[in-house]
Amino acid sequence: MLGFVASVLAVMAGQLVAFVFLLAGLGKLLDQSAARQAVAAYGLLPPAMARFVGAILPWLELAIATSLLTGVLGGWGVLVALVLLLI
User: Does the reported pTM lie above 0.90?
Assistant: First the structure.
């Protein structure tokens, strides 16, 4: 019984993380210029690289959400999500 509860909680946690990435990606797509400015404001990347990262970040977040929700390339989705969260 405990294994079943742990499995259900793991699935729910994965879906919650996917939902967060989905909302983040959609929010950035709705205001792409603000997303690029936010990445540039960190000051960690040269301006050209910051614009590039700001442009691809929403699509990466949506890909992670899709991977986590569907299980397609699930291991890679988890890995990329972890890397993105650690940066």
Answer: no
